[in-house]
Amino acid sequence: MDQSSIKKKLLIIKSKPAGLGTVEGFLKNRDWTIKSTTNLKDALIFLVQEQPQFVMISIDHPNRKVRNLPKILAQAFPCCVIIFGEENSAASFNMLNTSNCEYVLYPPVTGPAVERTVNKFYKDQQAKGVTNPFQRNGAAGAEGDGLIAIKGEGGTMGAQSAQSILQQLLAGDEGNNQFTGMTAADSSATAGGPQHASNIGYMPGTNSELNLGLMQPSTQNNGLGPSWAQQGHGAGNSMGNGADESDETLNAMLMRQNGGNKAGSGWAPMPPKVRRKDRPTPEQIEKNPLASKQDSIILRGTKDALEKSCLQTNFEESEAIEDSTNISCIVIESTRFSGYLITAMGKDRKLDDIFLGKVRERLFRFLKENGENIEDSESMQLKIKEVPFEEWALEQAEFLRKSVHDGNEVAMAFFPRHDVKTTFGESADEEMASIDLNELAGDVAVEFNVYIYLPKNNKYVLYTPRGSKFFNVQKQRLQNQGVSNLHILKAEIQDLDKYRAQNFLNDKIQDFESKQKDKVVA
To answer: What is d(CA 205, CA 198) in angstroms, rounded to the nearest whole number?
Structure first.
């Protein structure tokens, strides 16, 4: 069994949104695809749709139903189930010891420990003579029509039984994300940093040395402690599942996946379509003089990659690109040009990773074949301010190209930027990286944990947690005190890339909106 030939996909069901940030960053840097969530419903939807090879389940999850999952998943899905503990308590150790699960991780959980457990799983399978432990049960077109059968003591249950068991787990899923028993201290202990590092602190307080007023009071935490202890943003929830399924039942999701959805498309059937009658066709966009300010190699490469990657369907029947917030971004860095190549889909759909991978691969191949010295980069899923995509791109981008893919309009636009590459310096701790204070935009939520370094006692103090705003008043206070650098985990550098790209594009949107207002006034 060749591990390198199997895509590494992992689902993590954890107890607190900010937990395991370092673990997730470590694994992402080693080409793992990760869905990390506290929400049981989201986890099961991802499990059925994406079918990860490995599932990690926290024994400390506040929803007691999660404790039944390891046994059921081990029977229902061709995956390796790993249980782990997040609380360093006697109760957690006791539950882990009595779990009867073959693969267990004791706290504190680390990235290398996860990979060692994965390697042990593969070795165990080889010892048993299993060539592919992730093979589905049954032949294609057999019972369940592609759904995975569940093996029980009395034989094999069909797809309806599998669906019924998962629905029972979801039924009455009250309080799934309500951590009513979590104190500020509990939350601070899992604020997303490396828990094993002795010189990184999470307790709130003020820096008397610099008089910085590190922990700012929150206007929305209702007196429940420091604002960063109340955060509700988890790391690693980057997997896009196409349509938003947050309000759907698992039954509806299973039925939708089982019928009408093209294999590997990543998009589900849409409700009745409402289409603009006056939208420009791809040919009209190409002829628009505003759509390409110059015939550059990046323009020709984008056009070539788009044409060769799209599954062409009827334009009139396709979903139109209108106001967009969900986009994908490919970082382009060449010796002659650099910037962000962004992609939007009809009806503001989240983009399919398979399609984007084809576009990116063909684009870089075209550029290299035409003599460009360019570094490969992965695409990023971004969330920007809502904007009429085509109008904005026609005014602000270097070029805009459009096509139709699998019933959806798809448009790509290039925004030049000379400092597209993220720069960072070394920190006293090898796990940390220093970043310039000016990398942080005022009054904008950060995509990573931000720390301040106290050299006198060699401590890193969490200044702004992932998902919280870094306020302008904080930035001014730091500048007034002579602080020019802050610090982040090296494992979260990729999140800094995403943050910089979103800020850059949101500034372009703000400029576009200002010009639109000026036109109205005129």
So the answer is: 17
Instruction: List strands edge to edge, sheet with 425-426.
Output: 200-201, 459-464, 450-454, 485-489, 432-436, 425-426
* Spatial distance between the Cα atoms of 75 and 78, rounded to a whole number of angstroms: 8
Q: Shortest CA distance to 238 belongs to which of 515, 489, 484, 466?
A: 466
My answer on whether omega of the bond before 108 falls inside 30° of 0, hence cis, is: yes
Task: Give this prediction's pTM.
Answer: 0.52
Least confident of 172-181, 329-338, 366-375, 492-501: 172-181
Tokens, residue 17: 């949104």
Select the more confidently predicted residue: 317 or 82. 82
Q: pLDDT (tens digit, 9 = 90+) per residue, 41-89?
A: 888 888 888 888 999 999 998 887 788 788 777 777 788 999 999 988 8
The C-alpha atoms of residue 362 and residue 330 are separated, in whole angstroms, by: 12
Helix, strand, or coil (residue 425):
strand
3-class DSSP state for residue 426?
A: strand
The tokens of 425 are what? 């310096």
Distance CA(480)–CA(32), nearest Å, equals 42
pLDDT tens-digit map of 386-402: 999 999 999 999 999 99
Map residue 223 onto helix, strand or coil: coil
Closest CA to 333 of 292, 359, 293, 363: 363
Output the CA torsion 153→157→160→166 (10° steps): 40
Name residue 468's amino acid.
Answer: S
Mean pLDDT confidence for 275-293: 72
